[in-house]
Amino acid sequence: MAKAKLTFEEALAGLEKSAEELIKHDNTLEGAIKNFERGMDYYNKCNEILDDARQKILYIQTEGER
Fold this sequence. Notes:
Layout (H helix, E strand, L loop, with lengths): L7 H16 L5 H36 L2
Helix pairs in contact: 1-2
């Protein structure tokens, strides 16, 4: 996964896919761990993108109050 280049929508879709894979009953322990790790990478990317957006919004709001 080229994590730095993902959009929020791509990261969210990857997170959803990882979650779906974890729910499957035919998972091995190793497969489940890999899916969990991949899901955490997508989760962290989503949070990173949302944090950046939150900071931009706060900056714009602060600038608008001046």
